[in-house]
Amino acid sequence: MRCPRSSATATSTTDTDYVAKLTDVSPDGASIILTEGVIRARFRRGFARETLLQPHRPETYRIDLGATSNVFLPGHRIRLILTSSSYPRLDPNPNAGHPLGIDNASDHIPARQTIFHDQNRPSHLVLPVIP
């Protein structure tokens, strides 16, 4: 299943990561990651050129979770986790907006994320269902 995720968000920094994780949640609450996708905000318009963010300005992102397939057993639920990290799978984003690879530990700054879900900015998940 292809799982595009469209999200309208704003951040307090000039660059950040958005990671979407699709999970299968069993009746006992255990959650297994089925697939995940990531987008580094500076590349939201493609890898040809970097475009830094204006802090607190809403932007729309399309996060491709890749192809996967799962049969959800009775009593199981679907969970979507939207976060800004997937360490240690992905290196942390320093969020400072500097050129890639030059930051050191003192350059890292926290990013405060806002996810919008209203009539004008409807975040959503598209999941094809096969009977």
On the 0-100 scale, what is the average pLDDT? 90
Percentage of residues in strands: 35-45%
Question: Strand tally, please?
Answer: 7
Tell me the domain tally.
1
Helix content: under 10%
Q: For the CA atoms, what is the radius of gyration?
A: 16 Å
Biggest β-sheet: count, sense, barrel? 4 strands, antiparallel
Keyword list:
single chain; 131 residues; mainly beta; Jelly Rolls; four-stranded antiparallel beta sheet; three-stranded antiparallel beta sheet; 39% strand
Structure description:
The structure is a single chain. Strands 1, 4, 6 and 7 form a four-stranded antiparallel sheet that branches. This protein has a three-stranded antiparallel sheet with strand order 3-2-5, with no helix packed on it. It has one domain: Jelly Rolls (Sandwich), CATH 2.60.120.260. The mean pLDDT is 90. A hairpin with a 5-residue loop joins strand 2 and strand 3. Helices cover 0% and strands 39% of the residues. The relative contact order is 0.35. It has 131 residues and is mainly beta. It is built from no helices and seven strands.
Secondary structure layout:
Elements: E1 2-11, E2 17-25, E3 31-40, E4 59-67, E5 77-83, E6 113-116, E7 124-125
Antiparallel strand pairs: 1-4, 1-6, 1-7, 2-3, 2-5
Brief rundown of the structure:
This protein is mostly beta strands. The chain has strands spanning 2-11, 17-25, 31-40, 59-67, 77-83, 113-116, 124-125.
